[in-house]
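Sequence dictates fold. Next comes a concrete instance:
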Amino acid sequence: MTAETFVDMLRDAMFMVILLVSLIIVPSLVVGLIVSIFQAATSINEQTLSFLPRLIVTLLAIIYGGNWGINKLMDYTVEIFLRIPEVVG
């Protein structure tokens, strides 16, 4: 196994992690920001107000984006298995 092969596999793995995590985190971050702006504009300092919308958006992101994320992860796993001869030989 050459260093370039290892670096390529590590880069692909890190990209996959960032892609799958951002699928869930980014919508929750956007909703949290919108709720925070709303709370600052109306001077409502309720901690539980931001929890429910973020929870709902996170669950919706998992429901709607989960199939795509699982397919990307399965494609990556197949690619890793296909690269075994390159790594061993």
The chain has a mean pLDDT of 91.
